[in-house]
Amino acid sequence: MRPTFIDEVVKRVEACEDEVVKLCSRLVQFPTFNPPGITTDCVKFIEEYFERWGIRSKIYQNKEGKLNICGEVPGEKPGKILYLMHLDVVPEGDRRLWTYDPYGGVIADGKVYGRGACDMKGSCAAAMVAAKILSQLDPEKHCSAEFWFTCDEEVGSDEHGAGWLARTGRFKADVCLEGDCFMFPGRPAIDIGMKGGMGTVRKTFGKAAHGSQPHMGDNAIDKLIRVLAYAKRLEEYPLEIVDEMKPVYEACIKYYDEQETLTEEQKAGFKRIWRHPTVSLNLIKGGVKTNVVPDSAEAYLDIRICPGSNLQPIKEQLLKLIAESQVKDVEVKISGPTGGYYEPPNSKPVKQLIKTVELATGITPTLKVETGGNDAIYIKKYGLNIPCLGFGAGDEGLLHLTNEYVSIENLVICAKVYTVFPLVYAK
Ligand SMILES: [Zn+2]
Questions:
Q1: How far is the CA of 181 from the centre of ligand 1 (A)?
Q2: I want to staple 416 with a disulfide (CB 3.0 to 4.6 A). Which of 145, 209, 360, 386 is the partner?
Q3: CATH 3.30.70.360 fits 196-239+276-338, yes or no
């Protein structure tokens, strides 16, 4: 492949800037908030778009209103890329806090505003335009590509979305490019994996008594607070990381450290999360009445761990800390642990995507790891043996926020990368 051809393709994408922006705005206008996450109208819109450009597409549905669609662009070079996009969004929350209508798709100050603009209708719009441009190129120049737009990512897609599609054998490809990957404006980044972790429910038991005579009871909430203080210390525990991932995490630290929009405190947090587990107390309940000493209390800790680190000593350390608290009558339930996953940083698909980003944008991307979860996990869960990489238009730090937006700069970068990848990819 001569770079000049790729340059021409990149120019074609640039000429489509207006289209990507308008498509993103239009997609935001479909209120696909989940629950209930109805994608019917949005999928029909994409179907019509594909039809207009002569791209063959097929709708997959396991339940009324829960539609998924795949557009196919066959190529003659060996290999197939699976683009994995989701159409549902999280609810908008308190509408009064939004500057613009969350489903208005307002275009202003170089951005498209609205619920889902960042997560991930921006990536969806970029994928649609990439499919269109790719379908107009000589098929000898690229491999095959399937553009999937699915439902239920935000609520767990095992029943009707990507999980269901993965489980029922619909996903067949040599590499998956997932759109739930976030970057700082103009700073392309590739996710080469996803964090794993464990959830811990712990319950403490005590004895009820009248609130005026606490010494006659045994306060389960007091006990829970003490246990949690010990468990939280797991954050100080250094992760044992495999050698090949060490440079990736060091690069992540640098990537976040260079962002002017982050406070010093936030930067310090981003420094820690690649070297230590994160421990977040996300649910707590206990007590029945204001004047009753509680006899039980419960908490949920969300613990996340970098892929490529040894899980067993972390689990042991957690149990050791709980024991050290010396609180009696504690019940500990650990769900997971799961290791997440990563694609080796020196593997062929990773190298090819790096090269794609360089050719498409002139910038060398940072390799990082998704801290949360996304639909790629089902491809791993069902053992499909497809390397999963992330690249998307969304701006880092904006997903699920009020006044969510996607910058036009990122939309165009994403459309370029999505279009060029099938030209660079070689099986
Ligand atoms: Zn998402």
A1: 8
A2: 360
A3: yes
